[in-house]
Amino acid sequence: MSFGYFDDAQKVYVITDPRTPATWINYIGTIGFGGFVDQTGGALICKGDPALNRIIKYIPQLPNGDFKGETLYIRIKVPSGYKVFSPFYVPTLDNYDRYECRVGLGYMKILSEFYGIRTEAVIFVPMNQSCEIRDICITNLTKEPIELDVIPVVEYTHFDALKQLTNADWVPQTMQSKIVEEDAGYKILTQYAFMNKESRINYFTSNYPISSFESDRKIFLGNRGYGIWKCPKSLYEDELSNYEARRGDNIGALMHHIGILESGEHKEIITQLGQAASLREVMQDIQRYRDPAIVNKAFIGLKEFWENYLSKIVVDTPDAAMNTMLNMHNPRQCYITKNWSRYLSQYQLGFGARGIGFRDSAQDVMGILGHAPEEGRELIEMLLHVQNRNGSAMHQFNPVTMEASAGDSREMEDRPKYYSDDHLWIVLAVCAYIKETGNTAFLSKQIPFYEKDKEGKPLEWGSVLEHLKRGIEFTKEDCGVHGLPLLGFADWNDTVNLPYGAESVFTANLYGTALKEMVELLRYIRDEALAQAYEECYVSMKKNVNQYCWDGKWYIRYFDHHGQKIGSNENEKGKIYANAQSWSVISGFAPYDRAAVALQSVNRILNTRNGIKLSDPGYDGYDSEKGGITTYPPGAKENGGIFLHSNPWVMMAETMLGNGDQAFAYYNQINPVLKNDVVESYECEPYCYPQNILGDEHPQFGLARNSWLSGTASWVYQASVKYILGVRPNYEGLMIDPCIPSQWKGFRMRKHFRNAVFEIDVKNPEGICKGIKQVLLDGKEIEGQIIPVLEDGKVHNVQVIMG
Asked: Is 184 a member of any domain?
């Protein structure tokens, strides 16, 4: 059973049944102001820090049919009083005649028909604005006139979102609301915490006369607060109470008397939910966005942003599901994930100090560099600000205050206070940016290291290149008895937390990959001496990995602090880990014969119809020495689950061995588009990647969770475009190196690259996976597989013949 369909022409996914197996969402706005909206119009909106400047109360753990954050009521005048329902289905749960929620690029559009009333609501945040717009059109579909009222409702949280849940004394005492009358007859319902009333005011208003309002949830629901959102008692009264709450649970409800709608007639109401230091500073914007023409122009501006973003890389392959993902949903998710990191989702609730992860964002940014390279550079610079002078990095930071922490390592006092892989990812990100743009001057930019003096001033600055060199040196000097990098608190797999002295094979391979990238970069900028020194480091680590880590049919994953292997056939549980195999190939450490055998082991032991498991078999019981991985049951998350982030790394490794059929088979296994018809068991949104799927050791094998904010998005996009389709930037130009399914006759790609556009047409007449016979640029054959940098603002035709 499906709950909707893809409309590629309109660049939307259309949800046709609001009763999705799990809540499905879409992001609007940015981390500056925005959040997400679900398929029934519920919303979680914040400005800046989701933990410390939350606006809307949205609690995902509540039942799906419960009110969450924001909704809309309509009431029809009937002889006995009023018929009340929500055109968003939740929270009244009335039977609908038609329901469509269009999940668009930065917006939701909900169209519904109940009781002869059609409602169309477009929900979005205008570019560079701090307000959520809901443009609502109500139409009478019946043949008789109908008298109706429209009542939009929001429920506020305290700005300090966690305190809303942990301090039921202080928070209610501070929540206040006040109505503001405008000269033109409009009304604005404001809300604030007492301590912030001079600097932070939420406002809720519309473009239509408001006859009455409510700001207290208890009064709105009625029955001394025992009323329910399904049928609030106050909506059966002629007017709301006009009560200005001075404590308690603050809401905003606005009564609009639309009056009589004749058959076929419609009325438009535009609501605004925003935040400002004072109403005075935003009054002009409030008045502007009451104009439907201005709202429509803002919506067109949002669409133009996304059209421009997506136009930078467009593909046409023989596989429709791949086209759907690569031309819209995957690059859109990359941008959302780059923007929000792991800060705010259905699963990461924006509480506490997690903020933006250094490792997370260093990987996420690589997914947008072909579309928005300078936005990517800005994020890279932000990340470099939280790198330590010794070359390691703080694990996570608040992008508003730039305060950073060592992450979960603080919670386990007997474990090291750094992650062994964090600082190495930024090497890959910086090199990817320079390959995309050619901007080697960026390497000279001075950026402070994280440590500060008592006055808060940086103790030391260094060039971008110096930051990268420090990262390399940290790992070089931080190795254990086998010459492999020490694990620290953890590596990419946060949940394996071994006591000090443990070594990480993953970090060894990531170090090797970073060294390869640095050697290539240094030779491009003509620093041969350092390139040679790093090449020697690479050879040394390669020797250690192959001498100590080959287990016969695959590479082990760790040495623990006793020197015992983890991820070995000698182990009872956790015998094999996917990342030790894929990254041994990506790094180039694995000789071809070992690489082939290791990937065959992945396919034989770890592969399932729903994706590649991270490890096998799962641990079945808590082990304090191994840490977090053993807190999950077998088949869940990192403990034998299908952790999707690691799947594209296997795809990349397979393309490096020339196995295009296998790489594409792995791609299809996790393509969410192909889950659309089995979504009852999969449950998550079929238009974005989740973080994980339960593995075959779990009774709910195939169930997905933690959608949207996942490194899976960036890496699948890179694996698809750069390795399967094989169009990837390097310092000299565009490398053309496809590794595709043998049955494909070819594919096309339009790629913007350094102020030129390349129309690439790949032909595969011999039905092979990998190999290039001929490349023609504008009709002339070139040597090799690299399209040179042109930067002439023109469109160029590239013909590629595989063979």
From this structure: yes
Q: pLDDT tens, 367-379?
A: 999 999 999 999 9
- Burial 618-635, CB ≥16 within 10 A → b, else e: bbeeeeeebbbbbebbbb
Q: Is the CB of residue 114 less than 8 Å from the CB of residue 102?
A: no
pLDDT in tens, 712-747: 999 999 999 999 999 999 999 999 999 999 999 999
Residue 448 lies in a domain: no
Q: Identify the CA nearest to 127 among candidates 285, 329, 327, 364.
A: 285
Long-range contacts formed by 141-144: CB under 8 A, 24+ apart: 141/113, 141/116, 141/117, 141/264, 142/116, 142/263, 143/263, 144/263
Instruction: Flag whether 400 is in a domain.
Output: no
CA separation for the pair 160, 164 (Å, rounded):
7
Look at residue 352 and tell me whether its pLDDT is greater than 60. Answer: no
User: Tens of pLDDT along 273-326?
Assistant: 999 999 999 999 999 999 999 999 999 999 999 999 999 999 999 999 999 999
Convert the pLDDT of each residue in 470-519 to its tens digit: 999 999 999 999 999 999 999 999 999 999 999 999 999 999 999 999 99
Task: Tell me how crowded residue 564 is: count the other CB atoms within 10 A of its CB.
Answer: 12
Q: How far, in Å, CA of 707 to CA of 721, rounded?
A: 22
Residues forming the active site = 494
Residue 712: per-residue pLDDT: 98
CATH number at 245 reads 2.70.98.40
Side chain identity at 110, as an amino acid letter?
A: I
Tens-digit pLDDT profile for residues 678-700:
999 999 999 999 999 999 999 99
Enter the tokens of residue 590. Answer: 């694995």
| pLDDT score of 69 | 96
Question: What is the C-alpha to C-alpha distance for residues 757 and 792, in angstroms, rounded to an integer?
Answer: 9
Assigned domain for 299 exists: yes
**Hunting for tokens 């202080």 — which residue is that?**
170
CA nearest 44: which of 122, 154, 206?
A: 154
Quote the tokens at residue 531.
């390139």
ω before 738 within 30° of 0 (cis)? no
CA 314 from centre of chain: 21
Q: Which domain holds residue 780?
A: 727-802
pLDDT at 118 over 90: yes
C-alpha to C-alpha distance for 51 and 540, rounded to whole angstroms: 45
Q: Which residues contact 621 (CB under 8 A, 6 or more apart)?
A: 630
The CA distance from 153 to 589, in Å, is 59
Looking at 265, 283, 308, the residue that finishes a domain is 308
Least Cα distance to 269 among 284, 285, 258 occurs for 258
Cβ-contact 180, 188 below 8 angstroms: yes
pLDDT of residue 183: 74
How big is the chain, counted in residues? 803
3-state secondary structure of 61: coil
Residue-level pLDDT at 2: 83
How many separate domains does the chain show?
Answer: 2
Tell me the CATH number at 738: 2.60.420.10
* H-run or E-run covering 774: strand 772-777
pLDDT for position 355: 77
Domain ends where: 308, 343, 365? 308
Query: From start to end of 317-405, where are the E strands?
Result: 356-357, 396-397, 404-405
